[in-house]
Each structure stands twice: as structure tokens, then as C-alpha cells.
Here is the input.
Amino acid sequence: MTTNGQKYNLLVVDDESYICSIVEEALATSDEYDVTVYSKPEKALEHLANNQVDLVLTDLVMGEYSGVDMMAKALEYHSDCIVILMTAYPTVNNAISVLKKGAYDYLVKPFKLETLKNTVTRGLERQKLNRENLRLKEQLALYGLSEAMGTSKTLEEMLNQAADTARSVVSVNAISILVRENFNQIPIPYLIQGNPDDSGCEDFLRGNHELCRNAINNCESQTLTDIVSGEKSCIRSLASYPLMSRGEAIGLLNVIQEDPFMAVMPGQLHLLTIVASKIASAIETNRLHEHLQSSYIKAIRALANAIEARDLYTRGHTERVTILADLLASRLNWSEEKRAELKMGCTLHDIGKIGIPDAILNKPGKLTDDERKIIRDHPMVGAKILEGIDYLSPAMPYILYHHEFYDGTGYPDGLAGEEIPLEGRLLAVVDTFDAIVSERPYRKGKPAITAIAELEKYKGRQFDPIIVDVMVAAWKEGLINQLGIYEEERKQPVEA
Ligand SMILES: [Fe+2]
Here is the structure.
């Protein structure tokens, strides 16, 4: 039996009908074969075009028809078909030629029926092995998908990998993955591959089809098979799988397969169920990750707000510094990932101030040396607080190094030049700018031009000259003005 548990479909073609009868009789002794015989080659060609065929036994010369052409057609319609040529006029050249063109074997007439049966059995065993290898490859594709799910960074990468796997498992003509953002919502397409001509299929891929609604509502896969007639008639299978997560359909995997002879096999449908469950868990994991990330960010914000609530001098400072720093990062072409880390770092940069007593933090007058020392400890205290929290580690260079000076006279480590991590050098510039421009209880904020002049004055001493240049250019172009974080009278650039 075939790998699908069905009988093998054998086709015998010979213009001598008595040969057809003998071969048919010999092969009919096995209940594993369905044998069809034709003494007219044109009928055999028609049969090949319209039916599943696993093995072809054909005469090599049949009047104007050649067994080689028959073989070519058989392999065109059924790529893994076994073809055995028969001839009464053997030559070595003939034999080599047909084997090279894809024939499995070559029988010389008259042949013993036992030889015929053995050749057919061996051919079908080879085919079975090939088909099992193919199945193994499909299983490997699933294994590869599991691996990729573990290493893919983005949901998009994971969905593309899943679509590729589905395509290799079932050779689908088109595929779509749809996801519901919220329960009860209609799933929206996240990925569509393949472009069927039929508008009904387009609707199916976009989830606008009864099959999709049934799959979502009943939480069960749905399949539909129909015959497409036309120039090239084929069997079209539509399959819609709900993506199940914790008992809920969070989306759909839709596939379309068009095959001249076969609907999607039950085994393939089972493999697609596995692909669908992998997709569902990838989406769920992604959602959990996003939820975790947003919870973290909320926790960080709450922490930063707690610090600012105590520090009367710096209300709103953290947010403004974050916005300004991101402007400079965009001018420096930092990656999206680096800019996300920058937001975390700027938000947390003064977290160490949580350890400074209120009396020192909010002291209006001059600080004593001891008090200044306590203030200067805040980068180290901040680093200590976040130590061991891997997720927040990208904030470390901002926290630790935003008070280092370019000439090496800053704190806590007295690093100089490019020894100071770039994150610290960038934050130092915007931190100082905001400190000068912002209102304080005991003084009004100074104009932006004063802050810019200060940055220029200490460029190369306190600040990285390149970052100062980027900051000054942004200010001259009116970009800081456009951020809308400072009052009108102080943010306008002054014409040179
Ligand atoms: Fe600071």
C-alpha cells in the first residue's frame, strides 16, 4: 500500500493488446494494485493527465508514439512516478538513454512474469522510500520551526518561518496568518503569501469566508475541497486552522493547495495542525513579552516619578532630558534598539538620588563638602540599586557616567575622552542644558542661548565636542524649539 494506505495506481501501455492482457493478469494477483491498461497510447496520455498514477509500464516503440514521450508526460504530471520501459529490440544505447531520462528500469521482451513482478515491487519500494524520506524532511521542517521559534527575535520573523514550514510541508499555493488583537475582534491578516486569481480565495486568505468564521467560532479546523475547471483543471483544497491559546482562538492559519489530482492528505493536515499550534504559542509568547516589557517600563516610570517627587528642583527634568537625548540619538543615527535603551537609561539616570536625604537634596543654599560628596555618590548608588536586574542593564552606562568630564575631572571614575561610554557623554550634554534652562525655586531658568554658550565654552573640557556640535546644530535648526518642552521666551534660537 502507499504511504497514505491506498492501493498503488499502475498504468500499462502497449500497442500489442495481448501484452497488456498478460501484464494486467500478472499484476492483478496483488490486491495492492489498481491496474489500468491501454493499447492506444493517446488514451494512456489522457489517463495520465486526469488520474493519480504511481507506476507506468510502457512499451518503448508504439507506432508513432514513443515510450520515452510517455515517460516524459508521466513524470511531468506525477514527479515521483516510477516508469519501466519494455522493448523487444534492446540495445545498450537505448537502455542507457532511457535510464538517463528518468526511467526506473528496462525490461526486455519476452520477460518472465516473475521478473516483471519483482521489477514492479522494487520500483514501488523505491518510491515508498522516497516518499518516506519526503515525510522525514517535513518532520525536519517542523523541528526546524521549533528551533527557529526559540531563536527568532521578532514575531514577524517567527511567522515568516512558520509560513515557510507550512509551504514545505504541504506545497501550498497560498497561505495567510491572521491574528485577533482582542477577543471577539475579527482577525486581521499579519501575513499573506501567494496570490490566487480567484477573488473567493483572496477573501478566504483575508479571513472573510464562512470557513474561517466556522474555524474561529467552533475552535476547530475546517476544510473544503472543490474541483476548479478551466484550462488546467485541478482539485483545490482550502483549510482554515484556529490558532488556539488557552482555549481561545486568537487567530487563523489559512492554506490553499491546488493539485491536478489530489486533495490535501490527512497526514499533511495533521502536520499543519502542529504548525498552527506553534504559531499560536509564538503569538502568545510575543504578547507575554510585550506585556512584561510594558510592565517594566511602568515600574521604571513609577520609580523615576518617586525620585522627582522628592527633588523640588528637578520636576519634569527626567522627561525633558529623555526627549532631548532621543533627539540627539536620532541625529547620530542610533538604532531603534539603542534608542529604546536610551529612554530607559535617561529615565533612570538619577535613580541613585533616592539615597540622598531630603535636607541635602532640597537644600537651597550652598552645599558643604560632605554634602557634595553624598550628592556625588548618586551614580554609584544608582548602579548598586539596579545591579543584578538584567533587563535594566542597558541603563547602567547612563546612570554611572553622566557626571564624567571629557577631560577626566568628573566622577565617579574620572574617565576621560572616549573612555567614557558614549551613552554617558551624550546624557552629560543634555542633562546640563536642561539644568541651565529649567526653572528653579530660587531662580528663573536661563535662555537656551546661554545654555548653548555654556556647552560651547566647556566643549572638549566637560563635554564631548562632537555631541555638543550635534546639540548646537539641532538648536540652530529650531529642533529643540519644536519639541515643545521649554517655555517660548527661552527656547527660541537667536539669529547669529
Ligand atoms: Fe545626576
